[in-house]
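Hey,
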Amino acid sequence: MKDANLAPDDALPPTGGPLPPPWPGRLVEIDGRATYVRDTPGTSTQAEPAVYVHGLGGSAQNWTDLAGLVSDRLAGQAIDLPGFGRSDAPPRGGYRQPALAARVARVIEHADRGPVHLFGNSLGGAVAARVAATRPDLVRTLTLISPAMPFIQPRSAHARMLPVLMIPRARREIEERVRSVPAEQLARGILSICFADMSRVAPQRMEEAVAEATARQQVPWAAEAYIGTLRGLAGSFLVPASLPGSSSLWRLATRITAPTLVVWGRQDRLVDVALAPRTARAIPDSRLLLLDGVGHTAQLEMPRILARAVLAFLDEARLPSGA
C-alpha cells in the first residue's frame, strides 16, 4: 500500500459553466435480461474503456460528474445494477453479490471492450472487487470508493437490520415505506446520509435525484431490489475469511492483481473509514486516498478531487513495474 497522488487541477476541464445532465442511456439485452447503460464517450482518440458501478439504492446517474471530468482519458459505461435504475430485475436469488458480480462481468464481455478500468462505490465497490478478483482478464485497473467491505459491530445499523430482514411482516412494512415516502423526502434522506455536507448538492443534482426517486417508486420491484440487495450485502458480512475456499471479500481482495486506487471519505457514516487502510493493505498493488470533509460518495461530493486522483493513478498504472 502507498499514498495516492493528485494530478494538477489544470489537467481537468476548467471550472464554471452549467453542470452536465445525466448521460444518455440505452437498454442492452444480455442473456434475456435488460441492463441499462449510460455511455460517456471519450473526448480523445486515446480514451480507454471504463465501467462504473453504483451503490445500494443508487444508479448510473451517480457517475455523471466524474465520468465527464475524466472523459479525455476514459470512454465510460455506467450501468444500472439488476433491479436498480432502469435495469430489469434479476432471476430469483440474483441480488447476492456473486450474482451481481457475474452480471457486471457479462456486461463487460458483451460490450467486448475489456479489459476495462473498473470503478465501484459502496455495494458497487464490493461487486467491482469481486469482478477484479475472479475475472482478472476483464479488469485493467480498479478504483474503489468507500467499498462495502464486510464488518459487523454489535451496535451498527447492519447488525440491527439482520434479524429484521428475515421477518416477512417487517419486510412488508419496509416495502410499504419505500413506496409511500414522498420522492423528495426519499431523495433528500439518501443524500443526507451519503454526503458529509449537504451544501455541496447543487440544485440541479437535487432535482435529478428527486426525478429518479419518483421514477423508482413506479417500478414494481423497487422495494424488492432494495431489500434483496441489502440482505445479500448483510449476508456477505457473515462469511468467514478463514474458511478454506471462502468467498469472503477479504480473502478475495488478496487475489486482486490489477493496480487499485482506494478512496474513502473520513466522514463516511455508512462504511467505517477505519476499514480504508485495511482494505488497501489487503490488495497487493494498491494506493490509498483519504478525503477530509467527505462522506460515503466522493464521486458526488468531490468529483474534481477524485478525478485528479484518478488521472494520477492512470498515469502511474501505465509505468513499467519498478519505474
